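Hello Y.,

Per our agreement to keep a running log of every chain we model this quarter, I'm adding this entry. I've kept the format consistent with earlier entries: sequence first, then predicted structure.
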Amino acid sequence: MMPPWKILLVDDDPTVHTLISKSLPSEEFQIRSVYDAESALGEVEKFQPHLVILDLMMPHVSGMEVCRAIKTKKKKKKIQSPFTWRH
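Predicted structure for the entry above:
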């Protein structure tokens, strides 16, 4: 059995975290949730996710800024390009 994919979910809306977490089987995906852009950057380093799901419209720092920072770090690590959305 393959180890679960690590997914970092970044969104300021707790409902989104609940919906996505319940939609993905826990035996296939390990999901770490953060609620702000600043926490996301630190969590990318600690958690080393395979995939980042990122909200574009968050308070204080835009999701696009976080995406750029993650892509810069991605050159050093194997992280899939962040998946972004706007709601």
